[in-house]
């Protein structure tokens, strides 16, 4: 009997937030929540640093080293994870990150010195590579008319974990103290909470997602000759992506937006605690507002990136990115000079809006750079965010610079970097190909590996 082939499913041309009926939307919701928990675990100790600083007698320089360590290893992890996504698919890759990454989050409470705390903080940074899988997975699931919005929303809602942890972890800590634990024990037990949640999420990710709209990579390699052929063609794409100057410009740009976001996530609580003489809970609440802007701000960046792309092509996406990044630098300059608490908070929120819009706009461009190596491009650009955070961390650890002085310098650098956006250029052929796929997607015809497929009724 002749086998009947299953029709291939294309990328979704719409985001239906209230549906789990399709693999696209199941992936959308599971991946943003997984990234949310990764951020929650990654920065779980940040709002507790005033307590940890006292217990371990940490200097400003040592705190700077801890901030740097939390993002340094993520640079290399993101480069590796992008390649693993291209080779093995996002489902298995994410599962391993979640389960293995949960261990140092739970065990950082075993630290009893600056050195041991630094090593655990370094290990926790591995889970920051989860961002690459998040962006890769949604790029595989959504068409060109909504991919920027999908990428921005999953990343933004995930990044929101950085804000929630600023608010929730001090409350968990305070609750444990209320139950009779001493402060030295309470912060250690508090970190078990995000660690356990990460471990459980690894199981959920494996069971409820699939690699592509058509199925899992391992199965497709066995059953689909066309997929095997395309996988073989993509092998050389890794080095081609590495040689593309546009990839490295986006690497630099992402360092100037996401790199600054995670820097603020690391220092915001202690910045408000020291500068405005606030309590730990109040400083954490205000710092949390910065991260909570992700609930909509990064989505706006991706949304406007898509809208500019629809109207002006790929160049339109780049122009919007340049504008958002420039405004990020301007608002950071203003925030760094604020000395009145209400005005400082308001300025921080404007800065937060533009930094997150810049991130969303960046990943509205990334999926169009090299479609045969989306994972590699996502990984390189994502690693740029951590390089930016490391460089900012070196500046922040300088004993002769206040945090305000360092943030002012960083704002100037961000404004300068915004002009490098104009080096991200696309050929006429590339623009024409993108426009063809955009027209198909706007017409409700999902695109699978460059071929137009019948529209799905449920999308």
Automatic annotation (TrEMBL):
One BP term from GO: nitrate assimilation
Cellular component, GO, one term: plasma membrane
Domain Major facilitator superfamily (MFS) profile: start-end pairs: 27-428
Keyword Transmembrane helix: yes
Localisation: Cell membrane; Membrane
One family name in Pfam for this protein: MFS_1
Superkingdom classification of source: Bacteria
Similarity field: Belongs to the major facilitator superfamily. Nitrate/nitrite porter (TC 2.A.1.8) family.
PANTHER family: HIGH-AFFINITY NITRATE TRANSPORTER 2.3
Protein's name according to its UniProt entry: Nitrate/nitrite transporter
Species this chain originates from: Adhaeribacter aerolatus
Gene name of the record: crnA
């Amino acid at each position: 009997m002749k086998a009947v082939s299953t029709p291939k499913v294309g990328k979704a041309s719409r985001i239906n937030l209230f549906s789990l009926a399709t693999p696209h939307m199941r992936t959308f919701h599971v991946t943003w929540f997984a990234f949310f928990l990764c951020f929650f675990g990654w920065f779980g100790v940040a709002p507790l640093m005033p307590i940890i600083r006292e217990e371990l007698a940490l200097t400003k320089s040592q705190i700077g080293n801890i901030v740097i360590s939390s993002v340094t290893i993520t640079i290399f992890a993101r480069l590796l994870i992008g390649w693993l996504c291209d080779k093995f698919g996002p489902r298995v890759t994410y599962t391993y990150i979640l389960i293995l990454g949960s261990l140092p989050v739970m065990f950082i409470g075993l630290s009893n010195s600056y050195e041991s705390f630094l090593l655990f903080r370094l290990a926790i940074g591995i889970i920051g590579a989860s961002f690459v899988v998040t962006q890769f997975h949604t790029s595989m699931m959504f068409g060109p008319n909504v991919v920027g919005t999908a990428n921005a929303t999953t990343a933004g809602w995930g990044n929101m974990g950085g804000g929630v942890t600023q608010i929730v972890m001090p409350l968990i800590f305070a609750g444990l103290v209320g139950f009779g634990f001493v402060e030295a024990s309470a912060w250690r037990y508090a970190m078990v909470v995000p660690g356990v949640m990460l471990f459980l999420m690894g199981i959920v990710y494996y069971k409820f997602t699939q690699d592509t709209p058509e199925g899992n990579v391992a199965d497709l390699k066995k059953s689909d000759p066309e997929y095997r052929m395309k996988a073989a063609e993509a092998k050389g794409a890794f080095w081609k992506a590495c040689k593309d100057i546009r990839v490295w410009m986006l690497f630099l740009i992402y360092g100037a937006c996401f790199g600054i976001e995670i820097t603020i996530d690391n220092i915001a609580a202690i910045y408000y605690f020291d500068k405005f003489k606030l309590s730990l809970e109040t400083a954490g609440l205000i710092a949390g507002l910065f991260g909570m802007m992700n609930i909509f701000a990064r989505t706006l960046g991706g949304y406007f990136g898509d809208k500019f792309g629809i109207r002006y092509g790929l160049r339109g996406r780049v122009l919007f990115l340049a504008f958002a990044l420039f405004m990020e630098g301007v608002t950071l300059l203003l925030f760094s000079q604020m000395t009145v608490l209400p005005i400082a908070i308001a300025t921080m929120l404007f800065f937060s809006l533009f930094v997150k819009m810049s991130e969303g706009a960046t990943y509205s461009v990334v999926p169009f750079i090299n479609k045969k190596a989306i994972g590699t491009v996502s990984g390189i650009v994502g690693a740029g965010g951590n390089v930016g955070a490391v460089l900012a961390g070196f500046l922040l650890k300088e004993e002769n610079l206040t945090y305000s002085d360092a943030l002012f310098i960083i704002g100037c650098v961000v404004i300068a970097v915004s002009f490098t956006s104009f080096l991200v250029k696309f050929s006429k052929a590339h623009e024409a190909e993108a426009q063809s796929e955009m027209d198909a997607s706007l017409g409700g015809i999902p695109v699978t590996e460059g071929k137009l497929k019948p529209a799905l009724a449920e999308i």
